[in-house]
Amino acid sequence: MSRGWTAQDQSDSTAVLTALGNKYSAEILCAAGTPKSAQTLSKDIEIPIATCYRRIEELVDAGLLTCEGRQLSEEGRRTNIYRRTVDEVGVNFSADEPTFSQKRRTEAKNRIQDQLEG
Question: Where is the composition biased (Basic and acidic residues) (predicted)?
Answer without folding.
Answer: 104-118
